[in-house]
């Protein structure tokens, strides 16, 4: 925000000057600031067969290098057919130099290679250091001979005299690479200003709440969900192919959709997640990126998957007699590695796939492509079955990959880092984790507060309210617009219009916002006892509109109506009064009645500090507004102090990309420049 208009954009109690109340008497504050086909290659002696999809050039690929490969040979032809069911992009070579040249120019993220024993003995030492090379499978006639030299190369997964076990190993390894790409968040030790150890960074807090909402979201019957999802996948094929890391051929993609549509039931969600199809990739992608449209469409599957893991967890835990360890390989930035200090917390944003087999986990780390500043690590997760934690399950019996020895954690598992050391024997950084309790007191405290502020009359509204709190107004609008077809009565419509009005206000589309608010007020005036809370809230937000239009007396009139209703229905200590005083203070600020504005803002801050957590966004907003007044009064040292406090609180209580943080930073920078003059 430029210096010329900064003063007109005062934050409110929700960093928006805005309050919303739902029909369950819960306070919501809007948290933004206004303020594949075959092709031939010309560089090989024999054709290089490639099956690809045009969405991206950087998917995984398989190379088959053997001097005796013969395209006309029936065995070769049949083997390629089987390999194409596993790998979507395949290159075949019979000259080693051509194969080496491929690695110098390819853009594929990961390359898997089947190679004959004789050529393997020469090429493996040359290519082993190449980050793109993920795994090597030696196919030969003399297993004993080639097992000797190959055992010292970690990327060699095995020596085989039959292709059948190569198919199985390749399928497992490629799937493992695809599955092990989840993002994570940290809660570092010794955080500033009394931030407790068990308070994860804000984005993870909101992700935890998103999980709760997803698990409760149920708009239709299961068969309707399934049919809608299948239809959506057909319509959005191109977009989905771009989203996932390795799309399957269109024919296979459509077969998967048809099979899912006709055969899927809730009790086989784990089996579907474990299959080598686009479904598990899409689930992890949308959870990591919080892609709301897809989350709504797949909420039934995400819920079913979680519930099946929970059922297996409840059943299997009774059979565990002692602690055990599972493993997960990953490539991280060195900056992230430095964050992994002892006693820090780490949270994974999707479903977390681990293995009881350490070699499977190491497969990913030893073969992963690494950029500058990245390093491989091995997570060893020590599980005590007697402790309550996020549900996990040994899914070997219900998985499509029974040999993977997979232990699957439900989404958003949190772990404590107890050790972080380099293992000289394994030649890798090993990070030891312990699952945290699901009811960790500090973690629960902040999450509960956010839950109160985003709680709607029905679960489907909670997701939209959460997105508003995150400042994701476009996505929130998509949610509420999508929900219109499910709204059946006037009260529900009034609440829907109310939220859409809030969104339009945040998007500065004031005319549309007023129309939505007028529809809301019309219903509540005709039905005054249905929900006085929402009526007061709508008056408050109408005041915001008139405030933005510089119609200050009209704004004050609406704010006063809101305050009068709250005084009838709320206790004197209710934090809603913090918003009322904050907004009235805003009008006094606009009218340059700075003494009155300062009194209003301080009263709002007092209410907030007495009734809200110390890092609540309302407190940050009040501090920012008090700083604004001091700046106008040329009391720069006081202004600087309040601006700093606002920014520090916002960074602890809001996602890192929230617009309010940018507002506070600009206010602070502007004041510092002014102070230097």
TrEMBL record:
Coiled coil: none
Record field: compositional bias (Low complexity): 7-18, 32-42
One Pfam short name: TPR_12
SMART domains on file: TPR
Positions of the UniProt region annotated as Disordered: 1-52
Annotated Gene3D superfamilies: Tetratricopeptide repeat domain, Toxin ADP-ribosyltransferase, Chain A, domain 1
Chain intervals with Polar residues compositional bias: 43-52
InterPro entries found in the cross-reference section: TPR-like_helical_dom_sf, TPR_rpt
Source superkingdom: Eukaryota
PANTHER family hit by this protein: NEPHROCYSTIN-3, TETRATRICOPEPTIDE REPEAT PROTEIN (AFU_ORTHOLOGUE AFUA_6G03870)
Protein's name according to its UniProt entry: Uncharacterized protein
Species classification: Eukaryota, Metazoa, Spiralia, Gnathifera, Rotifera
């Amino acid at each position: 925000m430029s210096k010329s208009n900064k003063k007109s954009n005062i934050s409110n109690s929700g960093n928006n000057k805005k309050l919303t109340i739902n029909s369950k008497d819960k306070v919501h504050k809007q948290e933004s600031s206004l303020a594949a086909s075959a092709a031939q290659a010309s560089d090989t002696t024999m054709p290089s067969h490639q099956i690809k999809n045009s969405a991206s050039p950087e998917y995984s690929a398989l190379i088959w290098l053997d001097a005796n490969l013969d395209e006309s040979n029936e065995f070769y032809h049949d083997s390629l057919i089987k390999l194409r069911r596993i790998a979507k992009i395949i290159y075949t070579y019979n000259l080693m130099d051509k194969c080496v040249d491929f690695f110098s120019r390819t853009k594929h993220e990961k390359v898997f290679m089947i190679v004959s024993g004789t050529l393997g003995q020469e090429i493996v030492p040359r290519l082993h250091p190449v980050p793109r090379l993920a795994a090597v499978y030696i196919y030969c006639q003399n297993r004993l001979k080639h097992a000797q030299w190959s055992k010292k190369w970690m990327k060699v997964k095995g020596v085989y005299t039959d292709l059948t076990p190569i198919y199985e190993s390749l399928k497992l390894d490629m799937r493992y690479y695809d599955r092990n790409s989840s993002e994570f968040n940290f809660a570092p030790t010794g955080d500033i200003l009394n931030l407790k150890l068990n308070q994860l960074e804000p984005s993870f807090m909101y992700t935890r709440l998103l999980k709760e909402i997803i698990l409760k979201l149920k708009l239709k019957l299961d068969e309707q969900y399934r049919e809608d999802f299948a239809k959506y996948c057909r319509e959005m094929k191109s977009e989905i192919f771009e989203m996932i890391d390795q799309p399957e051929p269109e024919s296979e993609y459509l077969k998967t959709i048809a099979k899912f549509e006709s055969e899927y039931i809730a009790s086989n969600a784990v089996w579907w997640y474990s299959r080598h199809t686009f479904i598990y990739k899409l689930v992890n992608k949308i959870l990591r990126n919080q892609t709301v449209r897809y989350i709504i469409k797949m909420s039934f599957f995400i819920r079913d998957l979680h519930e099946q893991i929970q059922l297996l967890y409840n059943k299997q835990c009774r059979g565990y007699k002692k602690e055990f360890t599972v493993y997960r390989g990953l490539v991280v930035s060195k900056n992230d590695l430095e964050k992994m200090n002892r006693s820090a917390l780490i949270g994974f944003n999707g479903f977390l796939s681990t293995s009881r087999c350490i070699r499977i986990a190491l497969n990913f780390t030893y073969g992963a492509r690494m950029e500058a500043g990245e390093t491989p690590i091995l997570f060893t997760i020590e599980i005590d079955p007697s402790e309550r934690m996020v549900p996990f399950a040994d899914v070997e019996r219900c998985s499509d990959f029974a040999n993977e020895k997979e232990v699957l954690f439900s989404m958003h598992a949190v772990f404590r880092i107890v050790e972080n050391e380099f293992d000289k024997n394994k030649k890798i950084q090993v990070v030891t984790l312990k699952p945290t309790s699901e009811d960790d007191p500090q973690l629960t405290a902040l999450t509960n507060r956010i839950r109160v502020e985003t709680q709607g009359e029905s679960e489907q509204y909670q997701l939209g309210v959460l997105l508003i709190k995150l400042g994701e107004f476009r996505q929130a609008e998509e949610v509420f617009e999508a929900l219109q077809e499910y709204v059946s009565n006037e009260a529900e419509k009034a609440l829907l219009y109310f939220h859409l009005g809030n969104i339009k206000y945040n998007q500065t589309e004031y005319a549309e916002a007023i129309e939505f608010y007028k529809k809301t007020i019309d219903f509540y005036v005709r039905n005054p006892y249905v929900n006085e809370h929402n009526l007061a809230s709508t008056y408050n937000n109408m005041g915001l509109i008139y405030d933005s239009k510089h119609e200050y007396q009209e704004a004050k009139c609406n704010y006063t109506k809101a305050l009068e209703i709250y005084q009838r229905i709320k206790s004197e200590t209710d934090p809603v009064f913090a918003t009322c005083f904050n907004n009235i203070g805003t009008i006094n600020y606009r009218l340059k009645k700075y003494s009155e504005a300062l009194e209003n803002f301080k009263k709002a801050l007092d209410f907030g500090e007495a009734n809200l957590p110390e890092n609540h966004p309302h407190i940050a907003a009040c501090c920012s507004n008090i700083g604004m007044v001091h700046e106008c009064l040329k009391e720069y040292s006081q202004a600087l102090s309040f601006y700093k406090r606002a920014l520090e609180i916002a960074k602890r209580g809001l996602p890192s990309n929230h617009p309010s943080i940018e507002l506070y930073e600009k206010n602070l920078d502007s004041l510092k420049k002014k102070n230097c003059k």
